[in-house]
Amino acid sequence: MPPNRDPARPADNLPGEMNMTREQQLAEAFVEAADTLVDDFDVIEFLHTLAQRCVTLLEIDAAGLMLSDQRGILHATAASAENARLLELFELQTDAGPCLDAFRTGEPVVNADLHTNEHRWPRFAEAAEATGYVSVHALPLRLRSTVIGALNLFCAQPGPLSDEDIRTGQALADIATIGILAQRNIHQAELLTTQLQNALNSRIVIEQAKGVLAGHHRITVDEAFTLLRVYARSHNRRLSDLARDVAVQDPAVSELLSSRSAPATLTDAD
Amino acid sequence: MLSKQMTAVLALLGGAGERAAGPADAAAAAAAAALGVDGIAAGMGTGPAGVVLAWGQREASAALEDAQFTLGQGPCAEAVAAGAPILIPDLAAAAARWPAFTPAAAALGVGALFAFPLQIGAISVGVLLAHRSATGPMSPQQFADALGLADAVTVLLVHHANPGTDPADALPDAPHPGRAAPATYRAQVHQATGMISVQLDVGLAEALARLRAHAYAQDRSVADVADDVVARRLRLHRSDP
To answer: Whole-model pTM above 0.80?
Structure first.
């Protein structure tokens, strides 16, 4: 199996990242945040790209973003790797872990060695180690006094993040907040909740679309997500728009839904 | 978090079903009070047949919907297109946005309008429209309550559109895990909805209704049944539940 077919890895490298210094990559992330001001910006795609950027910038193994809804319930919204997303979902279900602590307190939880923190989140520590992560860091997504989610960083090796890494990580978390807020130009007091509502509903559309593709092609939902992203990129479409068409099985995407399209599209990307 | 008033409203809606006029009226009245509005209406499309929840100035609500439909502009269509609430705390300030609709709404005595799309991902079943004569924004609590109400009404409408799938039909008052609201659904529920939609060749709304009905009939949680569907341990059939 080619490496980038593995759902545990990012589907593809970001443009030019191999040749960029950290400063250049950080600048690139800010440029992407500025792109959120244009009309056809896709918040879920942006968050996925940001999660991948965290991995290369901070030299960690996986990153994920969780957003809160209006009830204060967190939802795993984007991740650089499927196993990180599963771990986040596990944390949400067991209602204990570093990301939830960062969200609830608004303070970073860094250098949380899972072995020494076993008593703090026993079930999470166990699940994380089973997934291959021994160290976890969580940074709050903050807007002034409001915390809207958390950025989670997962490491397969023990070892602390430097102060500079933590500052960079928090800057990336702030970029995520800016991107979420900027996604639509709505001038109203309820801006934040509205934007979150929109981002969370986009995520639901993507899950429905994954199910539709999995049903059509008899593939797993993770393979379905790869297929969806690859197709969106190769056809220059917003992920959320494509997902909506797929979810309602719009004739415009019949090519993607037909039984022969899946292997060809996946192969094109490899 | 939802307010106590709205939590009580959702309990009324979830327990009694929308066909029992008394409790639904009580729920709508309590909802309007919690949201601080004069009138509230939620439904599919226009006309009384599609309205499942209405309270207060019903004539104004109906006239507002008619005006938007006739004029082809207004907050409801925009809420559906944007996939996000459209909040107009001061209708007069929206005159440039909807030049034909604004005077028509003002003539009905409406000062502020709030439209919430009734949606679960790509499932879109209508709009919740609340209005009042006084201008001014909703409080953050009222806004959160309105979103929670929109979620609950969306589920009612999904079952309304697919007769025979409503868990409330079978056992009106019993609390049941199948009643969980979409906001608390895990990803697998939405993935399973998509898979069932393909397997049964039905729309997403019907797929979700059938998933919930199956969970109810088996006395299991929607999330557990969804896990089985996604893992291909379970395949729903047209004759289910």
So the answer is: no
